[in-house]
User: Fold Sel1 repeat family protein from Hyphomicrobium album.
Amino acid sequence: MSRHLTLLLLGVLTPLAVLPALADTSSWVMETTEAPKPKKGKAVKIAPSETFAKPTPSAAARANEGGLAKSLVEPTGDEAAYIAFDQGQYLTAKKLAEEGAARGDPQAHTLLGRLYAEGLGVSKDTQAAVKWYARADELGDVQGTFALGVLYAEGRGVKKDRLKSAELFEKAARTGHPLANYNLGLLFLKGDGKPQNPYRAAMHIRYAAEKGIAVAQYDLAGLYQNGSGVEPSALEASRWLSKAAEQGMAEAQFEYAVVLLRGLGLTKDEPKAVPYLRAAAQKGLASAQNRLAYVFAEGVGVKKNEEEAAKWRLIAQAGGLKDETLDALVSKLPKAKQMAAQQAASEWREKAGMF
Assistant:
């Protein structure tokens, strides 16, 4: 899979061009990115992600992310600062957190680090974030330790140091922190900050996957598909991919749909694949949009509809995905159907904020 999902805020490391025969992906990003663009009839190769996962700041954000990341700040002690943060009252949160930090509250230091790292209520200052997170780490707050590890991994506010980030992730992982385990697994997978060890990598990624981290479930599916650190198993790959898809991860939804369309490790089930494919397409994944166009063009699990196929092809085309076969299909449609498809595609993109 190409670049991919980092959780919000501080970060999880995503493997960097990790396995043989797997393409390099991007470095560090904050948004879910597009999965590979499969050609018609070809299976998708799932590869581990290439980005550090990042913790969410609050229970509200955690709910919005479907459980992908644990809260950066758990409201114990002076809860007022965290409540203010959850409500977007960042100046109030900063004032209350500063008061808590003055009393030696470890989590107040982490909250201040978060505010400075993301420029919430203050000017963005990653060097200040490093200072607050480092103090939180010294005081024993595991979220501060994890956050500091991300900054070292990404080289934000401090010189990039994967050895230091590995040390911090390992410290947090020993407490059972799922995202720290995930990031540590990525470092073992790449051999960056840790000796390359696919078995240790799989162990840490599996732990995070079992704790419900969607990106880890997605990557674990890739490890099973490629037999890296685990025995290859199409059934296990499909099982973990389905878990990530159920959490709403667009890449997982797309690739699980392909699994269902082709019966890879599962019984072929075209009708069941379509909702997953449509969900990924609605999230803006061009590869899913293009595959959905084929589904409608060929009547796979749905009633054949060339106009709907043309709509999704035009949407995918606007996203930069090339496909001469589908373009030829669109060009052969009657002018009226082409115009209707173009109108529908334009309306979809406008509604999705893609203009």
Observations:
- The CA atoms of residues 198 and 228 lie 6 Å apart.
- The beta strands are 12-13, 52-53.
- Confidence is low (pLDDT under 50) at residues 1-47, 56-77.
- The longest helix spans residues 335-351.
